[in-house]
Amino acid sequence: MILAMRSWHRPAPGIFLDHGKNVFFENITVHYAEGMGLLAQVSENITLDHFNVALKGAGDPRYFTTQADATHFSGCKGIIKSVSGLYEAMMDDAINVHGTYLKVVNQKNDKTIVVQYMHGQSYGFEWGLPKDQVQLVRSQTMEVVGNANTIRRIRPLDQPTVAGAKQFEIEFTDGIEIPVADSSGFGIENMTWTPEVYFAHNTIRNNRARGSLFSTPRKTVVENNTFDHTSGSAILLCGDCNGWYETGACRSVIIRNNRFINALTNIFQFTNAIISIYPEIPKLKDQQKYFHSGIIIEHNSFETFDRPLVYAKSVDGLLIRNNQIKTNQQYPPFHPNRYPFF
Question: What is the largest CA-CA distance in the chain?
């Protein structure tokens, strides 16, 4: 038995991208980073071609490559492409694509609110710009409230500039349809800074936590990948305005021609099945509108020692077809979810 220890903090990503546009990474390998392998924020059109986060081989004395995700994209737009990469031995996911909900802390008038970043590991970067389209959500049910609106003006309140700021004042071009500062809790999501995603021909293996996370309303295609012992779920579609504050609802997801090999050897957050569609909704029974929608899971191969294949919560439109399931006895079944489809 080998015990590998790490610090809790992640101060130094291998590559940090901020306010980039049309950025192309090709034939790059990150062997170790005390943080993410690649951390990108507020950037547009990013391509990873043969981008690897990997050990140096059998003789590498290390047992993990990055303190957290291999690649992480926060508040980006355009298209994110990750093709023909190798992601192994990370302490978190191969890829995480999301935006960030800000919590509404005060409403000054019918057009102005005060909002703030909530999670201690996710703040200090530019959240929005004038003319960006935004929407409000009710935190307890994760439902959109009112119509989409547009930022007229945004300014930091707790810092002189955006750098390091946690709290902002946002003025909209149109009025807010309902009060959004009551005790039930509301968040705000920037819909302009949301990307399309193409994640294909990658190998994800022998890592901790999960294989891949996608939280964007724009088209997401996950195809021809091999997820080999991803520890938790191989694919997670999440979204929450209560804990990590990572947006948002998926509207068009295609998961096809992937091979899943013995996922779920561990239980981590939201890992209820090999493919887990798990938005955090504290009051699901009160929800009137579905969160995710338009998800297709087809022509995949599941090789598993346990039962749970797909778990889905709050989805409008889920199609599962023409997948192949092979069972094995490489590990004893242990997962508390005993349903292939829940």
Answer: 63
User: Going by C-beta distance under 8 Å and a sequence separation of 6 or more, which residues neighbour residue 194?
Assistant: 77, 99, 216, 217, 218, 247, 248
Mean pLDDT score of the chain, rounded to an integer? 95
- The phi and psi torsions of 301 (rounded to 5 degrees) equal -115, 120
Q: Where are the domains of the chain?
A: 16-98+194-327, 100-190
| pLDDT (tens digit per residue) in 224-251 | 999 999 999 999 999 999 989 999 899 9
Closest by CA to 52, choosing from 183, 202, 184, 195, is 202
Is the pLDDT reported for residue 295 higher than 90? yes
Nearest by Cα to 278 from 325, 326, 246:
246
CA-wise closest residue to 152 among 170, 177, 134, 176: 170
- The pTM of this model reads 0.97
Task: Kindly state the percentage of the chain with pLDDT values over 90.
Answer: 89
For residues 281 and 172, give the distance between their C-alpha atoms in angstroms, rounded to a whole number: 27
Q: Count CB atoms within 10 A of the CB of residue 35.
A: 18
Strands (E), 123-185: 133-138, 143-156, 167-172
Please tell me the CATH code under which domain 16-98+194-327 is placed. Answer: 2.160.20
Report whether pLDDT(301) > 80. yes
**Residue 233 Cα distances to 55, 85, 89, 185, 209, angstroms:** 22, 19, 15, 29, 8
**Who's near 219: CB < 8 A, 6+ residues apart?**
196, 197, 252, 253, 254
At 178 the pLDDT is 85
Candidates 1.10.1060, 3.30.70, 2.40.50, 2.40.30; CATH matching 100-190? 2.40.30
